[in-house]
Design a protein that fits this description.
It is a single chain. The protein is an alpha+beta fold. It has helices at residues 10-23, 27-42, 129-138, 152-156, 292-300, 315-319, 328-331, 442-445; strands at residues 62-63, 68-69, 92-94, 99-102, 108-110, 203-204, 220-225, 230-235, 253-254, 264-266, 271-274, 279-282, 345-346, 352-353, 356-362, 373-378, 383-387, 395-399, 406-410, 438-440, 455-457, 464-480, 485-499, 506-513, 518-525.
């Protein structure tokens, strides 16, 4: 059996070193603790150890309300959408043992959904949700035996929005249809139309069960559909009218057990930092709905908590803060950590619910208005008008896909034009969706400059920190290991003494400004 390398975890090392320093009396052990702490500081150039890095959507096309456009400038309409911002670009390594390593997330995946190894991906390669969980327990792909069925957040890390939704496609074959996953890296299959499936029946199983129920009380699993680019709730048992459990494509994963786990910090100023993703969020939402173009304009011109770089999140960023342990029916709340405030709305059934939230990501499709819809996340129930029985003209408003689903809405128009929603489940159409803004916290600090002309001494330090520079320092800012600003001061000197005796023990980063540059260095407070 192969033993996988264990990645260096700066946070874990920092915690261990501080524990040793506090509990051990031996000078040798204390020196060892400080050595560990220095490793945790310099193990990477990144200030923050991201256990949950968000992989970019790979959407490079820009869109207006209907079609693709040239990339807008900051002063133009439709600026601030997904393609205007570049995140962690997808990067994969194809291994020689049937596995793929995601170089951004640290997760290792089974490369193909071809379960029986016949070189084809079809209905015979599908499993029920319970069968998929059981199959992970016995899988020894690549001589590893710690495979698991992914959570919805792990599975969603692979979605890419350079795909095109084929819903309503009337052609034959799949030429020209781009799936929402890199099919040059992963074996992928559309629905098997030769075995009575729809082309879009490419739903993938996960371990994430909805804490409530959908439709008429069905136990529900959240799954990713890499054919049409959505998260929806699917039954763990039979489809309505069926007798056999619904079947799903399956990918297995291993590594980075912390992926998908948030590390929220309430900053006390109306913002929430997630140290797992290095994103800062507005604690409140917009308080009102608006169409997509207005949402972009609102986001790009918003200033709050001393920051003017707020933006509309892309769909993978917004999905990262879904709390799948919560729902309106089970926790009387939106599907989000209670640190956040979430507006209540009166939904289409005159019931109390929670909004859909826009993202900057266009949900491209194969219609004449390829850019006419944008992705949203449902933090309340993902309602739909189900016609029951079919062709009866009688509609029931149901939670068809669950709080935490990702669907899409037209970017503009009148919701009244969709009295019974859209699509086979009658997804309610709101168009005027809410906004929760985000910004990158790496810009607060940056990266450690190892070859700086800024000198700190003594380091480690207990009470008084001395700072010297070849250039006059005009300002300093000190941040703790969570990225929170603990001290800021203006100055005009090349030599400073700072009283840090009141600070808590731990790792700190100091950003020093001179006339022409800013520099990051670090120190340890004893």
């Amino acid at each position: 059996m192969k033993i996988a390398p264990i990645p260096l975890n700066k946070i874990a090392i920092g915690i261990l070193s501080r524990y040793i320093y506090r509990t051990q009396n031996s000078k040798t052990m204390k020196r060892f603790a400080l050595f560990l702490l220095m490793i945790s500081l310099f193990a990477s150039e990144s200030i923050f150890s991201q256990s949950y890095p968000i992989v970019d959507t790979r959407q490079t096309e820009c869109y207006d309300n209907t079609t693709d456009i040239s990339e807008p400038n900051e002063s133009d309409a439709f600026y601030g959408q997904d393609a205007n911002y570049n995140g962690n670009q997808p990067s994969y390594t194809i291994n020689t043992d049937g596995t793929v390593t995601d170089n951004i997330t640290g997760l290792m995946w089974s490369q193909t959904t071809d379960l029986n190894g016949d070189g084809m991906i079809n209905v015979y390669d599908k499993l029920s949700q319970s069968e998929a969980v059981a199959a992970a327990d016995t899988l020894t792909l690549g001589d590893y035996d710690d495979w698991r069925l992914p959570s919805i957040k792990e599975q969603y890390s692979l979605i890419l929005f350079d795909g095109t939704d084929p819903s309503g496609y009337t052609g034959t074959g799949t030429d020209g249809i781009i799936p929402f996953i890199d099919d040059d890296i992963f074996g992928f299959g559309f629905g098997d139309v030769d075995n009575d499936e729809r082309l879009i029946d490419a739903q993938y199983a996960t371990t994430t069960l909805y804490v409530s129920t959908t439709m008429m009380g069905d136990e529900t699993m959240f799954g990713v559909n890499f054919a049409d680019g959505r998260i929806k709730g699917y039954p763990t048992g039979p489809m309505p009218g069926g007798t056999e459990d619904k079947q799903y494509y399956v990918m297995f994963v291993r590594g980075n057990p912390d992926y998908g786990i948030n590390a929220f910090i309430d900053n006390g100023n109306g913002t929430i930092t997630d140290n797992a993703t290095s994103l800062m969020w507005m604690q409140d939402d917009s308080g009102e709905g608006m169409n997509w173009e207005s949402a972009l304009n609102y986001s790009e011109n918003h200033e709050f908590a001393g920051h003017s770089d707020w933006r509309l999140p892309n769909v993978k960023e917004l999905q990262s803060i879904i709390d799948y342990s919560r729902s309106p029916a089970t926790s009387s709340s939106a599907a989000i950590d209670p640190l956040f405030n979430c507006s209540q709305i009166t939904d289409e059934g005159d019931e109390t619910n929670y909004p859909f939230y826009w993202t900057g990501t266009t949900h491209a499709n194969m219609s004449t208005q390829a850019g006419g819809a944008a992705a949203y996340i449902a933090f309340g129930e993902a309602l739909g008008f189900m016609e029951m029985p079919p062709e009866s003209g009688t509609y029931n408003l149901l939670d068809v896909h669950g709080a935490g689903a990702q669907r899409s809405d037209p970017k503009t128009g009148d919701p009244a034009d969709y009295p019974y929603g859209n699509g086979p489940q009658g997804d309610v159409i709101r168009i005027f969706n809410y906004i929760r803004l985000v910004r990158d916290i790496q810009t607060d600090i940056g990266s450690i400059e190892k070859n700086s002309n800024i000198k700190l001494y003594p380091n480690p330090v207990k009470n008084t920190l001395n700072i010297s520079s070849q250039n006059k320092i005009t300002r300093i800012e000190i941040f703790n290991s969570l990225g929170q600003n603990t001290l800021s001061m203006n100055c005009q000197s090349g030599n400073l003494q700072i009283d840090i005796s009141a600070m808590k023990k731990g790792m700190y980063y100091i950003k020093s400004y001179t006339q022409n540059m800013s520099t990051i260095t670090n120190f340890i407070k004893l």
